[in-house]
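To fix ideas, we close by showing one paired sequence and structure record:
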Amino acid sequence: MLDDVQLGYYDSADRKYVHRHPHANSEDYDSEQKDAGVVFGTPPSPSEEIDVFQRIIGCELLDGDVPGQVKLLDSYSGFAGNLQELNFNLQKKTLVWSMDSIIDWVVENIYQPICIKILRRYLQREKRYLLRKVKPRVRLLKKTLTHSTRTQVTCLATGFYPRHINLTLLRDGQPIPEDQLTGGILLPNTDGTYQMRKSLEVSAREVKRNYTCVVTHLSLDNKLDISVDYDPGPSILPIVLFVLLALFVLVMIPIASCIIWKKCAGHRELTQNRYIATASTEDNECSTDPK
């Protein structure tokens, strides 16, 4: 692990280090295999029962590329501690380890140099990926719970990197105690970013208050505040407009039909009058013919 990114793992069956990160290359393959063999070594021989041997080794670089502290922890069959405690536990398993006199030398001359070398190598290789800053997308949601009159107020922040974030839910400007909230677990997204949500269940009376989601993150210059006031429910304006439109249509259809009918009746009457007038003229012309 480099910070929160898994770079690889050691396969104890094949006794080799396996890359997991897509940006890895094989330039330092031989060196990495040798270092992994030294660090992980060969676990103690198991007894007739199932035993588990675990080892955690870590180191840090401070500002100015100065090596910081080294962390080393061994655990064997449920007993945890440093190598001195491991020596005591292994003696119970009839294995003899004389690490007390050389523990400082092992850490200083083997574990720390290897760890610092690997750390510097991967920091250089994955620098752009590890030092990126992605701003969180924050939403404040209100949802009526199924089969309940209560409402769930949720503050959701997602898509951010690095993983460290401070998420606070306020009610009328005052922080809500953490023991009243659910969630707060940091979860990974598939794109390498993270998400976190905190929720609060409130009554119908409490939901009328003003809730605010406050987020602080390394990618933000200032804290981000997302507020939402009480929502009394769906707006009735669309319903009113729909009813008015329906009434307008119901009223206008008969009126339009009447107008069209009158126009058609008038047109027929005019046509008939013209026909009668034309026929009368023709009759008159016929009656004036000389005999």
Observations:
- The radius of gyration is 41 Å.
- Confidence is low (pLDDT under 50) at residues 82-98, 229-235.
